[in-house]
Specification:
The chain has eight helices and two strands. With about 240 residues, the chain is mainly alpha-helical. A two-stranded antiparallel sheet has the order 1-2. Helix 3 crosses helix 5, helix 3 packs across helix 6 and helix 4 runs antiparallel to helix 5.
Length: about 240
């Protein structure tokens, strides 16, 4: 009886997930832009180059923190493949591992002044600046993901400061930040916005649905905030 009950419960759970996935796909289809692609903010490419050092330091410190948390209470060593997965998720603001990106705002005191990345108190909307920071992060971690995982696997006791120096200064060579391209440059600033609570729940549901979609070979979904969609329609591609 217990075996049949467990099997029935599993079957009902699978059906429920598939129904949620189908509903989410229908909602996502209504939020597509021209050509059937989800509307998404575009990074400011020049700005991403000008914050690579700051972003690399923040990203590397965040990964160090995430790995330390994962090791807590573990009786077995965190594997190198697990560490690579964590490094892969680090620069994706649509993944739980990359949610930290949404906390940051890019600021500039005046045209030609250095760009800064400043942490805010809450989860934010991932608009142009968030995608710009994500691009700067990926510029480092796409190339050095395996090296980072190997270092964290072999040197469990490495400090955050030594880890940042190794990744950002030695391997990626993005620190210190070059100043030659900053003169007369004016970053196209935008307001940092905290994420809407309902939208945050929807995005979290999207992650869960897409994990199931990937597991069962289904098409992933992409929810889009209508407010963000309106903002992204007229983005200048020259940046």
């Amino acid at each position: 009886k217990n075996v049949h009950s467990a099997a029935e419960e599993s079957r009902l759970m699978s059906k429920a997930l598939l129904r949620v996935w189908a509903l989410a796909l229908a909602v996502a289809a209504q939020q597509m832009g021209p050509g059937g692609m989800p509307l998404e903010a575009k990074p400011v490419f020049k700005s991403s180059k000008l914050v690579e050092c700051a972003v690399c330091n923040e990203a590397t410190e965040e990964l160090h923190r995430q790995v330390a948390l994962k090791r807590e209470g573990r009786k077995t060593k965190v594997g190198e493949d697990e560490l690579q997965d964590m490094a892969s998720a680090l620069c994706d603001p649509d993944d739980d591992g990359g949610e930290w990106l949404t906390y940051f705002d890019i600021t500039q005191s005046e045209p030609g002044a250095p760009l800064k990345v400043e942490k805010q108190d809450y989860v934010g909307e991932c608009r142009r600046e968030c995608r710009t920071i994500a691009k700067a992060c990926a510029a480092v971690y796409d190339e050095h993901r395996e090296d980072v995982a190997e270092l964290l696997y072999k040197s469990e006791a490495i400090s955050a400061e030594k880890f940042k120096a190794k990744v950002c200064s030695k391997w990626a060579a993005v620190c210190p930040q070059a100043k030659r391209d900053q003169e007369a440059y004016e970053h196209p600033d935008e307001w940092w916005l905290p994420v809407d609570e309902e939208m945050y729940k929807m995005k979290h549901m999207q992650r869960v649905i897409n994990q199931q979609a990937n597991k069962y070979g289904k098409q992933p979904v992409q929810f889009v905030d209508p407010m963000q969609s309106a903002m992204f329609m007229d983005q200048d591609d020259e940046f």
